[in-house]
Design a protein that fits this description.
By secondary structure, this protein is mainly alpha-helical. It is 67% helix and 0% strand. The protein folds into 2 domains: 69 residues; 30 residues, no CATH class. Helix 1 packs antiparallel against helix 2 and helix 3 packs across helix 4. It starts with 11 loop residues before the first helix and ends in a 16-residue tail after the last helix.
Length: 123
């Protein structure tokens, strides 16, 4: 039977917190393994349980990384869905070349419809 993992989150903050918690847990588990293997021979039998803990934390870190990647992709997509610069110019009473310059400076997005002419003055 295939089990699909579903997990919800409320934005980037939750994802970054989850990733940070997973990383901390992995570091702690690694430290415990090192101490156990160096000091106590009888604790070696617990190695499988510790491995399961580390595997679970790694799975969590991979999930959070994937979810963060998706969130960042969504941000990039939203930047690319900016309205037509002529429409923005009409709404703001600014020349199109100023709109293109401001949008480019603020978001890093060079609007496609004014890319070749973004430095030219409006006719």
């Amino acid at each position: 039977m295939t089990i699909t993992r579903t997990q919800t989150y409320n934005g980037k903050g939750d994802l970054f917190d989850g990733l940070e918690n997973s990383i901390s847990a992995i570091k702690a588990a690694a430290a415990l393994i090192e101490i156990a293997l160096r000091r106590e021979e009888s604790l070696k039998q617990e190695a499988h349980g510790v491995w399961c803990l580390i595997k679970s934390q790694c799975d969590d870190a991979e999930f959070f990384t994937s979810a963060l990647t998706d969130e960042m992709r969504n941000i990039e997509r939203s930047k690319l869905s900016i309205r037509d610069p002529k429409e923005i110019a009409a709404m703001t009473a600014l020349p199109t070349h100023i709109v293109c310059s401001v949008v480019h400076a603020a978001t890093g997005v060079l609007l496609g419809s004014c890319a070749p002419e973004w430095r030219k003055q409006d006719a």
